[in-house]
């Protein structure tokens, strides 16, 4: 798939870049995407939820009243789950929500997500660039010139660029990652995928391994 290369002003440079069919033109696998996104979201969970059981509640263990003859149900101590302030039955406990996925499946999911973006014409390729200083205004101008200010954007760089990353950090709909950090969730969550020419080469090399 051939895509025109734009400069940071949103103008065509006359150059074109070939998006590899092995990455942007495969038969998408929806189930692989589902599993990869599910794993990503599960890994974000802290799993620190906790409710106290009756053996963890501070309180007296004295029997509240005699076993028989009261006309009411028998009761043990005040820490019973039946009473206000008692322990909770089968309450949430700390746990790890993460799970394992094979590397080949995760690779297939990423390529499927990239293919969907290409099929929807939501991939924009721009020249490699950098900022001289950290300025949110510079990044806001970049996405405005590319006519993508109203949608969520994911900019993929070939390598870390602190000035570009910090310039985008205060913009709600903008996210910047390097090619090796690219994941299925971020690709699908973005309305437009912005790739630098260097990032296209890096992705091609990474998926070729």
TrEMBL record:
InterPro entries from the UniProt entry: Ribosomal_uL4, Ribosomal_uL4-like, Ribosomal_uL4_dom_sf
GO cellular component: ribonucleoprotein complex; ribosome
Gene Ontology MF, one: rRNA binding
Keywords: Ribonucleoprotein, Ribosomal protein, RNA-binding, rRNA-binding
Stated role: Forms part of the polypeptide exit tunnel. One of the primary rRNA binding proteins, this protein initially binds near the 5'-end of the 23S rRNA. It is important during the early stages of 50S assembly. It makes multiple contacts with different domains of the 23S rRNA in the assembled 50S subunit and ribosome.
Stored HAMAP family: Ribosomal_uL4_B
Name used for this protein in its record: Large ribosomal subunit protein uL4
Name of the gene encoding the protein in the UniProt record: rplD
């Amino acid at each position: 798939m051939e895509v025109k290369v734009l400069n940071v002003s949103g103008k065509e440079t006359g150059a074109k870049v070939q998006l590899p069919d092995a990455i942007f033109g495969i038969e998408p696998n929806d189930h692989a995407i589902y599993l990869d996104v599910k794993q990503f979201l599960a890994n974000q969970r802290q799993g620190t939820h906790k409710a106290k059981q009756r053996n963890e509640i501070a309180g007296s263990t004295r029997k509240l009243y005699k076993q028989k003859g009261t006309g009411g149900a028998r009761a043990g101590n005040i820490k019973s789950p039946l009473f206000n302030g008692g322990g909770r039955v089968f309450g949430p406990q700390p746990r790890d929500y993460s799970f394992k996925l094979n590397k080949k499946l995760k690779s297939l999911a990423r390529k499927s997500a990239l293919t969907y973006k290409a099929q929807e014409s939501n991939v924009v390729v721009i020249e490699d660039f950098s900022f001289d200083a950290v300025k949110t205004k510079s990044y806001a101008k970049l996405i405005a010139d590319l006519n993508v200010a109203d949608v969520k954007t994911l900019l993929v760089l070939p390598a870390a660029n602190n000035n570009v990353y910090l310039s985008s950090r205060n913009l709600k709909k903008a996210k910047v990652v390097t090619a090796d950090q690219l994941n299925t969730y971020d690709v699908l969550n973005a309305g437009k995928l912005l790739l630098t020419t260097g990032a296209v080469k890096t992705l091609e090399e990474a998926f070729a391994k």
